[in-house]
Amino acid sequence: MGIPQDKLGVLIGLDEGCASARVSRYESGHHAPPYETGQKLAGALGVPTAYLYCDRDELANLLLAAGDLDAGCLADLVKAAERLKK
């Protein structure tokens, strides 16, 4: 998302000496960050926390799109998705 790993790590409160390595491990999937760290990462990246845990690109993109909707539009989106399941 355009932020160097070391800067992202420091931004979320990791020690400067290990920030890049830890973020790299999270990014590569070698280690999963604790949920609280995931929340901080999502906040720094400007994405919903659930986005970081999506295993399908389509769902991740839907989360990004839905994150900008007001409550009424979001409710409509949920109803539309429920209709599609049937």
How would you explain this protein's 3D organization?
This protein is mostly helical. The protein folds into 2 domains: 1-53, 434 Repressor (Amino-terminal Domain) (Orthogonal Bundle); 54-86. The chain is 62% helix and 0% strand. It has helices spanning 5-11, 19-28, 35-45, 57-66, 71-85. The chain is elongated and about 50 Å long. The mean pLDDT is 93.
Outline of this structure?
The chain has 86 residues and is mainly α. Helix content is 62%, strand content 0%.
Q: Runs with pLDDT <50, length 5+?
A: none
User: If you compute it from the alpha carbons, what radius of gyration comes out, rounded to the nearest whole angstrom?
Assistant: 16 Å
Helix and strand run: HHHHH
Q: Per the principal axes of the C-alpha atoms, what is the gross shape?
A: elongated
First and last CA, distance: 36 Å
The assigned structural class equals mainly alpha
CATH fold field value of the largest domain: 434 Repressor (Amino-terminal Domain)
Quickly count the helices.
5
Q: Give the total of domains.
A: 2
What is the class of the largest domain in the CATH system?
Mainly Alpha
The percentage helix is: 55-70%
Quote the beta fraction. Answer: under 5%
CATH superfamily of the largest domain: lambda repressor-like DNA-binding domains
Mean pLDDT: 93
Described by strand count, sense and barrel closure, the largest sheet is: none
Sequence-ordered SSE layout with sheet pairings:
Blueprint: H1 5-11, H2 19-28, H3 35-45, H4 57-66, H5 71-85
Helix pairs in contact: 1-2
Keywords for this entry:
single chain; about 90 residues; mainly alpha; 434 Repressor (Amino-terminal Domain); 2 domains; 5 helices; about 60% helix
